[in-house]
Amino acid sequence: MQPFTQCTGIVVPIDRPNVDTDAIIPKQFLKSIKRSGFGPNLFDTWRYLDEGVAGADCSSRPLNPEFVLNQPRYRGASILLGRDNFGCGSSREHAPWALLDFGIRVVVAPSFADIFYNNSAKNGLLLVTLDAAVIDGLFRAVLASPGYQLAIDLATQTVTTPTGEAHQFAIDAAIKHRLLNGLDDIGLTLQDAELIRAFESERQRVAPWLFC
Amino acid sequence: MAGKTLYDKIWDAHVVRTYDDGTALIYIDRHLVHEVTSPQAFEGLQLAGRKLWRRDANVAVSDHNVPTVDQRNVTDPIARLQLETLKANCGLHRITHFDVGDPRQGIVHVMGPEQGLSLPGMTIVCGDSHTSTNGALGALAFGIGTSEVEHVLATQCLVLRKAANMRVRFDGVPSTGVGAKDLVLALIGKIGTAGATGHSIEYAGSAIERMTLAERMTVCNMSIEAGARAGMVAVDDTTLSYLEGRPYAPKGALWQQAVASWRDLHSDTDAHFDREVVVDAALLAPQVTWGTSPEMVVPVTGRVPDAAAEADPVRREGLRHALAYMDLKPGTAITDIAIDKVFIGSCTNSRLEDLRAAAAVIRGRQRAANVRQVLVVPGSGLVKQQAEAEGLDRVFRDAGFEWRDPGCSMCLGMNPDQLAPGERCAATSNRNFEGRQGRGSRTHLVSPAMAAAAAIAGHFVDIRNWN
Ligand code: SF4
Fold this sequence. Notes:
The structure holds 2 protein chains of 2 kinds.
Chain A: E1 6-13, H1 21-24, H2 44-47, E2 79-81, H3 94-102, E3 106-109, H4 114-121, E4 126-129, H5 132-144, E5 149-153, E6 158-160, E7 166-168, H6 173-181, H7 185-190, H8 193-206
Parallel strand pairs in A: 1-2, 2-3, 3-4
Antiparallel strand pairs in A: 1-5, 5-6, 6-7
Chain B: H1 6-12, E1 15-18, E2 24-27, E3 30-33, H2 39-47, E4 58-61, H3 77-93, E5 96-98, H4 108-115, E6 123-126, E7 140-143, H5 146-155, E8 157-160, E9 164-171, H6 180-191, E10 199-204, H7 206-210, H8 213-221, E11 230-232, H9 237-243, H10 252-262, E12 275-280, E13 287-289, E14 297-299, H11 313-326, E15 341-344, H12 352-362, E16 373-376, H13 381-389, H14 392-398, E17 402-403, E18 424-427, E19 442-445, H15 448-457
Parallel strand pairs in B: 3-4, 3-6, 4-5, 6-7, 9-10, 9-12, 10-11, 15-16, 15-18, 16-17, 18-19
Antiparallel strand pairs in B: 1-2, 2-8, 13-14
Helix pairs in contact in B: 2-5, 6-8, 12-15
The complex binds iron/sulfur cluster.
């Protein structure tokens, strides 16, 4: 996993609650056997005017000019600003893969759905939870000034606005440690391989029917 | 000290170690695999040069992409590659794989219990949120993401934080025509789709005790639509008689030994639940969803709600949006909603009992003229065989329904079975999200009997007084 320390970048606002993983990356793209290449289909239904087909080239498809990701002022955005319950619905890990592949490194919202939160953490996508009132203010600021940027620092757990205003955010200590160091979850667990083996032989002794 | 809940007992029996941050390393007994969420996990394993930890804990099946007519003829090259990748990965790692053509092939959550691969007291995972279905057997079963699939392949464990305990009691005797699907839809309507977030649900009460295993699976299946990752039911004689003799269930002396240990798989009488919800099953009518979230549900005797009556502005906007997407007018009686298509299938309602319930309603009748297509899709090849042995396929065919091969089918439209834009469908599946059954599709979730009756009438009917 790529480590996350800090990120300064353009903010793109998606102003609706309950953005589900079906919207982030529609089902027809789940047929891919790769982790990469989902970026062009991020928010496919909202982003294009035609129907998205898996494996097709997106460069000549008609864009929906209304959708924020298509507006020139948000080009190159690496921070997504969202509303409540971002990432709800199916457990597809393709959702954080698509956001990352597009170039998003941080999502800032008042709340996130459970499985999406876990899946993001495992892929180095930082999710920042801030007060709904603070988020409201950020939405206003982003809309008011083209090219609006935020600076996010994981070590100090702060989001800093262009005027120097700093907002503190909370994060699970274990997730922070893994993100900062780009730690590989499986590598960490395998350090306990002996314990797992011991547990397994004991389980085989008390519940032998699970091992036939 | 308070007693333990069923969830506490299974959790405690699987803790390999605990960490300072409050998480624990949990051992996984069974890992079920399908083609959609596994390829990147196998690839990750290979790239890191890691080995599969325990081969026999894994069993794979192809389901999401499999066509339900002419199963082997997968015309979409991308879907075909995904199916072939599963086959290749299983071959490489020597994992048992029920491929197309094997009678055991079917929807992963139907196949696991049917084969006796899912057993009481187990921790069971699969890269699919409806893994909770297996909890009906008194197991801790939940869906995981692809990184976690790789984690299980490599270590047979997951790092997890324990959930809170919630008990849902369904008391009373439901009226004839009101089934397991109606009970769970009513629950979701009551607590909402985030109602059980952070909790593991145990279903209890006299209505659950009287249910067959198939019905309990229907209830546990939709735990995720109530916000919970896992839902479960205590082990009783119904569980044991369901399992005895299943291909992968223990036999002989091992069976006796297993049963003795499974007898403890219930919550202690003094166990503490962080939350309890009670539903009077005797008062429920058949349920029909009208909107784009499973919580947007009303009794069949009800009407489509009016967004203007909602006080909360965010919710009001949500209702408005759903009404527009579903093209419904507030105040419309549910029984006045005409439908275009019917789908009977999915991991929620594609077991033999579901097909029997649907067939019982339609015997000797014809599909309504306005209903363009009715798909009946058994959950596995074995369900299909048994249904045919009972002559159910004839009943469906005679009524003008299509009798298909097993798979996920029109539940999510990753295969050729999809709705056209704007089409309205009575479906026995579990999600009615925008576009779930195809771009612009409109889904109403109902029980198998309600779906079959709607196919005959051309609109929803209250099967309690319909004949
Ligand atoms: S039937 Fe539907 S919900 Fe069930 S596993 Fe298949 S796609 Fe998922």
